[in-house]
Specification:
Shape: elongated
Strand content: under 5%
Number of domains: 1
Number of strands: 0
Distance between the termini: 55 Å
Largest sheet: none
């Protein structure tokens, strides 16, 4: 069934979680208290949209609503891109950090057993497709943290024990906690 949440999730996924499609209109309808910066950004977008529509309509020989709509749409897209670019750049930096972690992990695996390297690559695939967070910034932040923890485990832990842990169905949760599970279960001492 096609719902707005499904469309938003699809668009987030197709833009590689660089653009947050969950936000359009949500701040406006949620009684959000805008900061001065947010007012300036929105004013910039609205002004550019109106100016773009007017200029396109004014330059058009036929006039009418079509040139105005096209000019306003183009101006909206361009002005919105300008205001969103710092956030997109922040997400791109997190994505590049993930790619660096993957390169580092793969270089460490070059001397390892083929089966172990395959298992690590399967875990990397799970991490890079993991997207349970609502916000694209949170998705990239979590992926970066998980890959960093995996890289640390590969450096510091015994690979025979790590092999068993990486096969765990809850590997994402284990990596998210960041603490390598010990072989013996933890017991709680009574006072």
């Amino acid at each position: 069934m096609l719902s707005l949440d499904n469309v938003r999730s699809f668009l987030n996924q197709k833009t590689d979680y660089l653009i947050n499609w969950n936000r359009p209109g949500s701040l406006f309808f949620s009684n959000h208290r805008y900061s001065t910066r947010e007012f300036i950004e929105r004013g910039f977008v609205i002004t550019c949209t109106a100016a773009g529509g007017f200029l396109a309509w004014n330059k058009s020989e036929e006039g009418g609503v079509t040139p105005f709509a096209l000019g306003a749409s183009l101006a909206f897209l361009l002005s919105h891109t300008v205001t969103m670019s710092p956030l997109i750049y922040k997400r791109l930096k997190a994505k590049w950090s993930c790619e660096e972690h993957i390169k580092t992990i793969n270089s460490k695996l070059s001397d390892e057993d083929k089966d172990f390297a395959l298992l690590v690559n399967q875990v990397i695939e799970k991490i890079t497709t993991h997207a349970t967070e609502k916000s694209p910034s949170a998705v990239w932040g979590k992926r970066d943290r998980l890959l960093k923890n995996l890289e640390t485990w590969i450096d510091e832990e015994e690979h025979s024990m790590l092999n068993d842990v990486l096969k765990n169905e809850e590997i994402i949760s284990l990596l998210d906690h960041g603490i390598f599970p010990q072989a013996e279960p933890l017991t709680i001492k009574s006072l």
